[in-house]
Amino acid sequence: MIDESVVRDNLAQIRGRITRAGGTNVKIVAVTKSLPSAAWRVATDLGCDAIGENYAQEVVGKSREVSRHVPVHFIGQLQSNKVRQLVGLVDVWQTVDRESLLREIVKRSEGQDSPRLYVQVNTTGEANKGGCDPGEAPHLVGLARSLGCQVEGAMTVGPTSADPEATRRAFALLRTVADDLGLMERSMGMTGDLEIAIEEGSTMVRIGTALFGQRS
Fold it and tell me: Could you tell me the pTM of the whole model?
């Protein structure tokens, strides 16, 4: 059950946090993993810019239950064999971090609009996190552009430790990578590190807990 009034109040608080951190025109992606499809409707009705989903099966299932188009960003680590079922349901692929995944998205999107994507960069050095090495980003972006993709931005996940200084370094690095590659969007920042992300130049935050509360 999604309480729309609670989500409305939470969204106002999130916007206030963004403003106090110095953010202007920052997009909010509502992270709806493990939530019912009603979360898609509520979040977009209240003005969130997009839905963020982490798992292919949830995108497929919820899209069958939502009768209107909702902009969906895929924000989880993605196996190439899941791409086929997601084409046509995902508007933006935020976690493109390797050539094989990029080529699979291009292959499966043939005959449709050119894929919109972000290159995911591992800015923390943690082996358990998705994302390409920062030094590999130029090649991946160049290849994506050569294959006709719309490379709209760069994306990263802050350090597991949540150490403020490590978080700041990670986000500053993503901003540098994005700027060097001429990418306008920087998708970084979640509930716990939103302020640092805004201060370091985020143009898009991915918010779940602060919007919908703790998941059961």
Answer: 0.96
The 10s digit of each residue's pLDDT in 49-95 is: 999 999 999 999 999 999 999 999 999 999 999 999 999 999 999 99
Q: By the 8 A CB rule, do 168 and 200 touch? A: yes
Pairing status of strand 27-31 against strand 92-96: unpaired
Q: Are 82 and 89 in contact (CB under 8 A)?
A: no
All structural domains of the chain, each given as residue ranges with its CATH number in brackets, are 4-212 (3.20.20.10)
Are the CB atoms for 26 and 50 separated by under 8 Å?
Answer: no
φ, ψ of residue 158 to 5 degrees: the values are -65, 170
Q: pLDDT by residue (tens digit) across 93-112? A: 999 999 999 999 999 999 89
Q: What is the spatial distance between Cα 161 and Cα 173, in angstroms, rounded to a whole number? A: 17
d(CA 70, CA 92): 12
Model confidence at 215: pLDDT above 80:
no
* Cα–Cα distance, 197 to 35 (Å, whole number): 25
